[in-house]
């Protein structure tokens, strides 16, 4: 089954009660048992829910995985992954990553004795130097948020397997439409399904996909024991969103290329961060592991101060100034004061995230309207 078909049919079956084409929303907390322990596979909705099961099967299908798990948010999914570790374990993470992930790592799990090393993973050689006997996990985003760095997943996987370390990849920006980390050697794939998988900015949800049964069983246990699960309504909304992922991503990519070219030619723009440019430092890796370059880009304006950046963001009419990304509507963001404010300035600047950076989540509107909106705001 090819990807465009998987988004609609992957892991799905007709409802057994009435042959409903769409999975019903099982808005129930518990299930009747004919005798103690004798039931139809469902006992309590924190543990399992048929609507969530349909979503989890879809998750597995689109990432070419054996197992899928759905959580209340992307951060809840990350939380479950880090709970696989114990005090004294160490994690190597990219230094250019979502601010909420950095906050979870440094403000929560570091207090429980887990040590984090942050490094620029576009330089693969430097990663192996950080590995020691306590290293248990490599955490990567690619493309990264918000600098759009590209990390070589195959190279990371080779290092991880050599040292018997898990490799987890946040695939939120790329989506499985463009990139499938499990096929490239990753052990665990994570998504903020709030973004492109849901696609309509109307739900918060997280996803994990993987192949290893023993690891999946541990994560299912954590999912049930910790209880950070998503409800049936949210499961239904993301399952519905996945059915149009392929057509949405195609338009996201088309629009973003046009906007990247426009910004790159604009005299007021200093630099555009987008992996589709041949001058992007890891453009060749993007070509190797991605099918297209995605719907995200960042840029800096020349002769900037915060007032200039803020005025541009305030003047935009079609782009909405808001956090999050991956919806059908175009969004703009000032990472330093919004999505990445939890990262100290000196740490942000190490990865190139300056106060002058603007991040765009390019939607599926008409590209001419989006370009005109940017033109009037910048010029």
From TrEMBL:
Family, as annotated: Belongs to the trans-sulfuration enzymes family.
One Pfam assignment: Cys_Met_Meta_PP
GO biological process: cysteine biosynthetic process via cystathionine; transsulfuration
rRNA processing in keyword set: no
Keywords assigned: Pyridoxal phosphate
Protein name: Cystathionine gamma-synthase
GO terms assigned for molecular function: cystathionine gamma-lyase activity; cystathionine gamma-synthase activity; pyridoxal phosphate binding
Cofactor dependence: pyridoxal 5'-phosphate
Record keyword Hydrolase present: no
């Amino acid at each position: 089954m090819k990807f465009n078909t998987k988004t609609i049919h992957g892991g799905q079956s007709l409802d057994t009660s009435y042959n409903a084409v769409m999975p019903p929303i099982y808005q129930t907390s518990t299930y009747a048992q004919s005798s103690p322990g004798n039931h139809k596979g469902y006992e309590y909705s924190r543990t399992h829910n048929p609507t969530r099961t349909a979503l989890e099967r879809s998750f597995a299908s689109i990432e070419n995985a054996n197992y899928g798990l759905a959580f209340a948010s992307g951060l809840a999914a990350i939380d479950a992954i880090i709970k696989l570790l114990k005090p004294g374990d160490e994690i190597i993470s990219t230094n250019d990553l979502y601010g909420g992930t950095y906050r979870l790592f440094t403000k929560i799990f570091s207090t429980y004795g887990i040590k984090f090393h942050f490094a620029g993973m576009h330089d693969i050689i430097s990663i192996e130097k950080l590995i020691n006997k306590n290293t248990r996990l490599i955490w990567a985003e690619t493309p990264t948020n918000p600098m759009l760095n590209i990390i070589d997943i195959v190279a990371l996987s080779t290092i991880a397997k050599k040292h018997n370390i898990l490799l987890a990849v946040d695939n939120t920006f790329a989506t499985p439409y463009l990139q499938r980390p499990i096929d490239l050697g990753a052990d665990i794939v994570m998504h903020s399904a709030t973004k492109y998988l849901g696609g309509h900015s109307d739900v918060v949800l997280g996803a994990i996909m993987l192949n290893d049964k023993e690891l999946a069983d541990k994560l299912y246990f954590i999912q049930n024991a910790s209880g950070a699960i998503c409800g049936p309504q949210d499961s239904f909304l993301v399952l519905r969103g996945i059915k149009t992922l392929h057509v949405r991503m195609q338009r996201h990519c088309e629009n973003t290329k046009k906007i990247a070219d426009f910004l790159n030619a604009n005299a007021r723009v200093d630099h555009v961060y987008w992996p589709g440019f041949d001058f992007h430092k890891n453009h060749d890796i993007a070509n190797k592991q991605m099918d297209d370059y995605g719907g995200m880009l960042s840029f800096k304006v020349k002769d900037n101060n915060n007032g200039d950046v803020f005025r541009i963001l305030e003047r935009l009419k079609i782009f909405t100034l808001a956090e999050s990304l991956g919806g059908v509507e175009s969004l703009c963001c000032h990472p330093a004061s919004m999505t990445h404010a939890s990262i100290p300035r000196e740490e942000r600047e190490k990865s190139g995230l300056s106060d002058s950076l603007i991040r765009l989540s390019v939607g599926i509107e008409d590209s001419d309207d989006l370009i005109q909106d940017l033109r009037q705001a910048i010029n």
